[in-house]
């Protein structure tokens, strides 16, 4: 049976995007990219909503020889793209008639060995409210957006136990918590 981790990058003031939907402030340093790649390499699959899927599917096309130049991130980007393409992705959307439910989450967890991640605050809110999130992993970027999309569902109270904390690079911090109770 899989564990489910809500994994997101946020601003220091707790947003996944800025007021206008921008997230260019979340571009990782090479060290932060490698750290994230190490986490993702342990996953058995990822769960996305439609917006996160559209954001992440860029990795379908980032391949060596594509002529792209990401500066010092180029090698890390190619490595991550290869890793991303190698794992299962599960995409859910109410608008497309495929909503994520507690029952679906329980079935996915029961049929998967290892760790699944869920990304995107809206989709994660469903999993958190259903009590299906086992851990929360959060990258905190040294940038305040002043508003935008909150990473934690409004009104959801939870008790968390800190199980890891790391200074990643250039002000980036990674925190990992075990979810002990949601209310």
The rounded Rg comes to 16 Å
Helix content: 25-40%
Briefly note the CATH topology name: Dihydrofolate Reductase, subunit A
Terminal residue distance: 24 Å
Our estimate of the beta-strand percent is 25-35%
Query: Can you tell me the CATH class?
Result: Alpha Beta
The helix-strand sequence is: EEHEHHEHEHEEEE
Q: How would you sum up the major sheet?
A: 7 strands, mixed
CATH architecture designation: 3-Layer(aba) Sandwich
Summed over residues and divided by their number, the pLDDT gives a mean of 92
The CATH superfamily appears as Dihydrofolate Reductase, subunit A
The order of strands across the largest sheet is 4-3-5-1-6-9-8
Outline the low-pLDDT stretches: none
> What is the tally of beta strands?
9
Helical element count? 5
User: How would you describe the shape?
Assistant: globular
The tally of domains stands at 1
Structural class comes to alpha/beta
Account of the 3D structure:
This protein has 5 helices and 9 strands; from the N terminus they run ββαβααβαβαββββ. The protein is 26% helix and 32% strand. A hairpin with a 2-residue loop joins strand 8 and strand 9 (172-182). The protein has helices spanning 30-40, 50-56, 74-85, 102-110, 121-129; strands at residues 3-11, 15-17, 43-48, 89-91, 115-119, 135-141, 149-150, 158-169, 172-182. The protein starts with a strand and ends with a strand. Helix 1 runs parallel beside helix 3. The strands form 2 sheets. It has a 7-stranded mixed sheet with strand order 4-3-5-1-6-9-8. It is globular and about 45 Å long. The model has no long low-confidence stretch (mean pLDDT 92). The chain is of the alpha/beta class. It has a single domain (3-182), classed as Dihydrofolate Reductase, subunit A (3-Layer(aba) Sandwich), CATH 3.40.430.
